[in-house]
Amino acid sequence: MPCEPDGKQNNPKEPVQSEPIHLQSDHPKEECGIFGVYGVELASGLIHRGLFSMQHRGQEGCGIVVSDGDRVRSHKGPGLVSEVLTEPTLLRLTGDRGIGHVRYSTTGSTRIQNVQPLVVECVDGIWAVAHNGNLINADKLRRMYQDAGAIFQTSTDSEVLVHILADPMFRRRPQRVARALEELRGAFSFLIMTKDCVMAARDPHGFRPLSIGRLGDGYIFASETCAMAQTGAEYIRDVEPGELVTVDETGLHSSIFADPVTNKAHCVFEMVYFARPDSVVFGKNVHQVRMQYGSWLAKEHPVDADIVIAVPDSGNSAALGYSRESGIPLDFGFIRNHYIGRTFIMPQADKRAAGVDLKLAVVPEVVRGKRVIVVDDSIVRGTTVRHRVAWLRSAGAIEVHVRISCPPVAHPCFYGIDFPTSEELIAGGQSVEEIRKFIGADTLGYLGEEGLLSPFGNPNDYCKACFSGEYPLEVGGMGDKNRLESLNPELPFRQ
Ligand code: SF4
Fold first, then answer.
1. What's the rounded Cα separation, in Å, for the pair 475 and 487?
2. pLDDT per residue over 73-105, tens digit each?
3. C-alpha 478 to ligand 1 mean position (Å)
4. Mean pLDDT for the chain?
5. Which residues pair with 74 in a beta bridge?
6. What one-character-per-residue DSSP string does 99-141 give?
7. For 359-365, what is the mean pLDDT?
8. What is the pLDDT of residue 338?
9. What is the share, in percent, of the chain residues with pLDDT greater than 90?
10. How is 357-384 classified by DSSP, letter by letter?
11. Protein residue closest via CA to atom 6 of ligand 1
12. Is residue 462 in contact with ligand 1, taking CB distance under 6 Å?
């Protein structure tokens, strides 16, 4: 391919830049977001802005890699975009092309080496890789390369792509990137960069979103379209499942690296929780989909009450839909502290409890003496919603009716969302009535599967395995997000 590395290395006296980084352990988490630019001056500033608008997808660490066509420069570290990618850093990252990543560890631990983009210097040049998703055959590929003598620098599943790209067998093959992508199984939206080009690829099932935009004469790639809007780019289209898009000095080129699958497997949980309401994901505006979920909920689980309140922010749109459908007024019974992260994604249980206490506050004047319907996006372990029901009661609510804008989450995800095991998921072993009793609500209603899929033209194109247990791709021995680490317990750079 014209854009693959030209074999020239960075000047050895000027190695790939990587700032010293200090491990900070206490940031909240998400899944991942990726953002890429080609052909726009001061690309690092644009990537910073794009990542900032997708901070909700990952708060554990972030990074940027840029190229000016000659040299590649990078910076990454643990923490929020505003903490890691400071103005002086961005000014040093010169170039008109680059990729960036905000991270949450769906595989691999929170070690700094796992922060992306991964940057490697192969015999034929520099490659950088940013990944959103989860590869279900990463263990097998990793073992294969380790048996052959490869040394892995991280415990992420994403690194196997780097080893395939560096494999001499693949280096000799035409369309090397496409052939490498063919080896991967699972959920992946990738941005790949060399000195000369930026590539974007999406797995054949299309689990994770990835969009293409235009900015002047340049191109933008982003996990979510909200990042397009906030960088002034115009959304063009999504990267299609099984498509590899390459942008270089000759323009934008598309190729298909995998046979089409009968049914796609877009992650419906992007709609329920992860994506920002102003994004268009899988062709649908997230806010409007959540409004429809709320409306369905009101029809499926009506109840006499005085007010509807949302658990902000991800419950806002569904609460509005519930309120409009039921005619029960919407009010603000919870206030969110925006300066603490989203508690669902903190890795350790003690931090989860601490985060919940700080994240939301009840407005007693709103709920006192009222029959309250509280709309939330999902229940994972049940402890968080239990606390919230108790707070509402202690603030004077006389009835608390919980409505959840998705079906019970009873199964883990192996495609890039960090749910706990079935044993830890409250719906993994308990009925709705048992859950209601546990959380202390007067009534509890979940959105049904029909409502969950109702906004979509072809419901068969959506993955709903965490609700149904029907996995669109065989997951085999998956189950521990830190399993790659346990395969290689002697990694010398373990923190
Ligand atoms: S299992 Fe659930 S969270 Fe995972 S990809 Fe499927 S719908 Fe999304």
1. 18
2. 999 999 999 999 999 999 999 999 999 999 886
3. 14
4. 87
5. 65
6. EEEEE--SSS-S-GGG-SSEEEEETTEEEEEEEEEEETTHHHH
7. 92
8. 77
9. 75
10. HHHEEE-HHHHTT-EEEEEES--SSSHH
11. 463
12. no
Does residue 35 have its Cβ closer than 6 Å to ligand 1? no
Q: Is the CB of 388 under 6 A from ligand 1?
A: no
Q: Band of the pLDDT at 169, cuts 50, 70, 90?
A: confident
Determine whether the shortest distance from the Cβ of 380 to ligand 1 is under 6 A. no
CATH number assigned to the domain covering 269-468: 3.40.50.2020
How remote is the CA of residue 432 from the centroid of ligand 1, in Å? Answer: 21
Say whether pLDDT at 25 is over 70. no
Mean pLDDT of 469-476: 88
Same topology between domain 33-262+483-487 and domain 269-468: no
Residue carrying structure tokens 């975009």: 81
Q: What is the pLDDT of residue 43?
A: 97
Model confidence at 343, in pLDDT bands (50, 70, 90)? Answer: very low
> Does the pLDDT of residue 210 top 60, yes or no?
yes
Confidence of residue 107 (pLDDT cuts 50, 70, 90): low
Residue with CA at minimum distance from ligand 1 atom 5? 267
The number of the ligand 1 atom at minimal distance from the alpha carbon of 467 is 2
DSSP 49-92: HHHHHTGGG--SEEEEEEE-SS-EEEEEEES-HHHHS-HHHHHH
Pocket mutation for ligand 1, best pick of 406, 417, 460 (most atoms within 8 Å of C-beta): 417
Q: Using DSSP, state whether 341 is helix, strand or coil.
A: coil
Question: Domain boundaries in the chain?
Answer: 33-262+483-487, 269-468
Superfamily grouping for domain 33-262+483-487: Aminohydrolase, N-terminal nucleophile (Ntn) domain (3.60.20.10)
HSE, side-chain direction, 13 A CA sphere, residue 174: 1
| Cα 267 to middle of ligand 1, angstroms | 5
Instruction: Determine whether the shortest distance from the Cβ of 466 to ligand 1 is under 6 A.
Output: yes
Q: Which residues are catalytic?
A: 32
Kindly give the distance from the C-alpha atom of residue 295 to the centroid of ligand 1, in angstroms, as a whole number: 22
